[in-house]
UniProtKB/TrEMBL annotation, chains A, B:
Name by which UniProt lists this protein: RNA methyltransferase
UniProt-listed Pfam families: MRM3-like_sub_bind, SpoU_methylase
GO MF terms held by the record: RNA binding; RNA methyltransferase activity
Domain tRNA/rRNA methyltransferase SpoU type: from-to ranges: 98-235
Residues in MRM3-like substrate binding domain copies: 5-82
Family recorded in the similarity comment: Belongs to the class IV-like SAM-binding methyltransferase superfamily. RNA methyltransferase TrmH family.
The organism's place on the tree of life at top rank: Bacteria
Gene source species: Zunongwangia pacifica
Length: 241, 241
């Protein structure tokens, strides 16, 4: 049976400060939990309607639909919810492959989509500014669909990180060079900016190559591409060659 | 002042059957409303905290923050909400340019993103199966950011539509040919499938060319790309050449 204090703990994990205090995050649904169990992530507790996973007795808590509804961050709760330990993640000292860098991405769905894209396109390291949304946010974990187990997400002071690397850095700007006509190096960092403001002034100074996706419509009103769809197109351009 | 019956009407427009019955849809926020006002869409009523738009007196209703909160479909209500008439949209008889076709896309956010992508990449016509989410759903309208005024979205029996066209049809399948190595024709239809099941069997038979985006990660577990990000990459491939 699920205790009141467990429900209180889990709902508190919607907030970053409680995730950090407890060193725990929430994953929901069989697919995501299974992938986390198959990876290096460490299970703390599993709450489920039946014993569907092979976990030790003291890690398993039988939960009914009402309990799961109280704990869930989803509109439609799944049949299982798990707590995992937040791992210590860091980078190798020097990177020599394509790395994605996020400067202030705020939307959990965008970060989740970008982690999935990194997984698809074989990008192992995703470096986020400290003001980028936390990758252990329940919505991010949900939308990564398990990709979080294959992409190393780290939070860094971006200016220091970029200065410490010898790689060419590509940044996306409206006035950047047409990415379709540009020779892209594979050993590089690709910097994507905030949803509303793009790349910050501090980071812009550290970008070696400005690139953009040309617009094909005639209208002045057309909104720029969303950061997740733009990342999809840039990663596709890096890998297609 | 906003009447109770107006609030009741507006909240009912979250459902497709009431949108169809009343021939109206909801748009929220200054940017989206302004773009609709600048287009061929016809305003029915505007509710706002102040007279920010140049509309006739009988179309304007002064609304306070509390009213807007009751009417809004957003977590954070905007300072303006408007009702527009649902237009009659149809296609030219014969298409001779790149057209996107959606077979059963269900998520409003995905449809909104795809409409924005069509706008960016200059795709004028988006043909949706009857079971694709309604483009006048408030969440779709919101996420299109005004692109709905520049993309002609029509709902059709897809099998009949595809049979009536002479264009080559590209469909996205896991086992399709590598899109990076394929010569793509510009006068074509690009068919994208449902989030969970892809393109339906009925439509698969009508596809002339199966294409795919290669996966660059080694893992068997990697989830296939989301329909909106895949559409971004395919449209980029069509236009880059």
């Amino acid at each position: 049976m699920v205790s009141k204090s467990q429900i209180k703990l889990i709902t508190s994990l919607g907030q970053k400060k409680y995730r950090q205090k407890n060193g725990l995050f929430v994953a929901e649904g069989i697919k995501v939990i299974q992938e986390l169990l198959n990876s290096d992530f460490q299970l703390e507790k599993l709450f489920a309607c039946e014993a569907i996973f092979d976990v030790s007795e003291d890690q398993f808590v039988l939960a009914d639909v009402r309990d799961l509804k109280k704990m869930s961050f989803l509109k439609t709760p799944q049949t299982a919810l798990a707590l995992f330990k937040i791992p210590q993640q860091d980078l190798e000292e020097v990177l020599d492959e394509l790395t994605v860098v996020l400067d202030g991405v705020r939307d959990p769905g965008n970060l989740g989509t970008i982690i999935r894209l990194c997984d698809w396109f074989g990008v192992k390291n995703l470096v986020c500014s400290k003001d980028t949304v936390d990758c252990f946010n329940p919505k991010v974990i949900q939308s990564t669909m398990g990709s979080i187990t294959r992409v190393n997400v780290v939070y860094k002071n971006l200016a220091e990180f970029l200065q410490s690397q010898d790689l060419v850095s590509y940044g996306t700007f409206m006035e950047g060079e047409n990415v379709y006509q540009k020779k892209l190096r594979q050993k590089a960092v690709l910097v994507m900016g905030n949803e509303a403001n793009g790349i910050s002034l501090e980071i812009e100074k550290l970008i070696s190559e400005k690139i953009s996706i040309p617009q094909f419509s005639q209208s002045q009103e057309t909104e720029s591409l969303n950061v997740a769809t733009a990342t999809a197109i840039f990663l596709s351009e890096f890998r297609r060659k």
